[in-house]
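Summary of Year 1 activities. Much of the first year was spent building the evaluation harness for sequence design. The harness presents a backbone, in tokenized form, and records the residue chosen at every position. We chose the following record to illustrate the format because it has been used consistently in internal testing since the harness was completed.
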């Protein structure tokens, strides 16, 4: 049963980075939800084996168990959707209307399929999101601004630009003078290559492309807020062109 719970919760791994929880704590939290839902939707050992083998569930109780768990997960589930990019399940045709059982089965399969291919870039995004959230204590912004950043839209409000600058300084992408540090860009490329030399090459290329922000005119001196917005635009737009999932 424990292994089954891990399989069901596997798609929630990225949330641990954002929330700062250990995987064990997250497993326990969702294990409680699964056990609660299992009272309403009991499943058999054969069903568990099917899920362990990453097979799309066919039985209604199994699908509905997943749907029940995802619904009870609330905001953490929404965070997962954002990081794994599996909104496509909402567009799929289902036979059970608003019950969500068929869609939950599709979400389970999609999250398993996509987790391996997007985990590294998702980890990077999630870790940066955690840093941004830490900076909201000093530079509070409303949820709309955070969602705009999540959607890769370059901020226009100075407070949001300064929020980015704070985050970039914390991860040493920017120095205390508000300037981009190219050597840190190279280190980041090395850190995120994941054994793929082409990722390393593209990462270094991206770092060099975005070093141009140091030559751009800014209105806020060494605060780095304007430059952070320039860097965000360069990094997200060119990163996607170079094959990185943003």
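For this record, the design step produced the sequence shown next.
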């Amino acid at each position: 049963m424990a292994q089954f719970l891990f399989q069901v919760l596997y798609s929630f791994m990225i949330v641990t980075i954002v929330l700062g929880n250990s995987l064990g704590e997250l497993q326990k939290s969702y294990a409680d939800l699964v056990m609660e839902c299992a009272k309403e939707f009991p499943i058999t050992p054969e069903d568990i084996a099917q899920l362990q083998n990453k097979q799309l569930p066919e039985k209604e109780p199994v699908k509905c168990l997943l749907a029940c768990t995802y619904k009870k997960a609330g905001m953490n589930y929404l965070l997962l959707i954002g990081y794994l990019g599996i909104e496509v399940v909402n567009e799929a045709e289902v036979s059970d209307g608003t019950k969500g059982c068929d869609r939950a089965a599709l979400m389970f399969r999609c999250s398993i399929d996509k987790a391996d291919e997007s985990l590294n870039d998702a980890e990077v995004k999630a870790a940066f999101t955690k840093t941004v959230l830490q900076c909201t204590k000093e530079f509070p912004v409303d949820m709309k601004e955070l969602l705009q950043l999540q959607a890769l839209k370059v901020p226009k409000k100075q407070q949001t630009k300064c929020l980015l600058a704070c985050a970039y300084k914390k991860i040493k992408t920017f120095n205390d003078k508000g300037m981009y540090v190219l050597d840190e860009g190279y280190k980041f490329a090395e850190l995120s290559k994941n054994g793929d030399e082409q990722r390393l090459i593209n990462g270094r290329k991206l770092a060099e492309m975005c070093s141009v922000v140091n030559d751009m005119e800014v209105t806020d001196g060494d605060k780095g807020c304007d430059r952070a917005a320039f860097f965000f635009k360069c990094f997200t737009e060119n990163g996607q062109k170079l094959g990185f999932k943003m």
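Residues 2-116 form a domain with the Recoverin; domain 1 fold (CATH 1.10.238.20). Quantitative recovery figures across the full test set are reported in Table 2.
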